[in-house]
Amino acid sequence: MLIDWWAVRSGRAQVENVAKPAVMVALIGVALAADIDPTSAQPWIVAALILGLAGDVFLLPRVDRFIEGLGAFLLGHLAYLVAFALAWSPGPLAVIGLVGVVVLLRVVGFDIVRSVTSSQLRWPVTAYICVTVAMVLLGTATGRWLVAAGALAFASSDGVLGSDRFVRPAPHRRHVVHILYHVGQAAIVAGFIAT
Fold first, then answer.
1. Burial of 43 (0-12, 13-18, 19+ CB in 10 A)
2. pLDDT given for residue 115 in this prediction
3. Number of helices (H) and strands (E), helices first, in the chain?
4. What angle do CA 90, 50, 99 make, to 5 degrees?
5. What residues pair up with 36 in beta bridges, in sequence order?
6. Distance, CA of 5 to CA of 62 (rounded, Å)
7. pLDDT at 94
8. 186 contacts 19 by C-beta, under 8 angstroms
9. Are the beta carbons of 74 and 59 closer than 8 angstroms?
């Protein structure tokens, strides 16, 4: 992760091309080797990570296939929804998830939808935001603070990426996207490892 963050921050695209996917390969390895609780969630977590790996490759600057990346991450979020539903245990964290979703929608979500000028992208982006909202709400409804934090970080990464792409680009925003994304994915996996 640190190598990827350094590569993005310092503009070393060739290092990023290897480091970003390598992070996901490592997380897939952890999810396959770990004692996941509940065990029924393991294939869904692995599927979400594999789809995240595909999305990462599609969104690399040298590839830049946004729609394909969006589709891969959308399917990954859906896989996480199943994993989160299998670990359903709502409690106080669900309130934090609801507050987090409201804040994210208010800060970036509505601006992103309004700023998408292409009619071809408006519906896919809107659907993606809706699925991301559901992912955060179900992630926090697992009652696992690491999963909740991971879902919120992952959604925040999506929000920053969408804001950068559709609302107003900002220097070094990709760096923030990568940090939130990796921390989010790692926290979700860690939150499912049996203790």
1. middle
2. 86
3. 9, 0
4. 30
5. 193
6. 17
7. 81
8. no
9. no
User: Is residue 36 helix, strand or coil?
Assistant: strand
Q: How many CA atoms lie within 13 A of 27 on its CB side?
A: 28
Q: What is the DSSP letter of 38?
A: S
| C-alpha triplet 78, 60, 70: angle, nearest 5° | 25
pLDDT tens sequence across 87-145: 999 888 788 888 878 877 777 777 887 788 777 788 898 899 989 999 999 999 999 99
Which two structure tokens, joined as six digits, stand for 132?
A: 């991301």
* Residues constituting the chain: 195
Structure tokens at 77: 């979020």
CA distance 122 to 111: 12
Residues 87, 189: Cα–Cα separation, whole Å: 13
Does the structure show a pLDDT above 90 at 190? yes
Q: How crowded is residue 95: how many other Cβ atoms within 10 Å of its Cβ?
A: 11
- Residue 190, amino acid: A
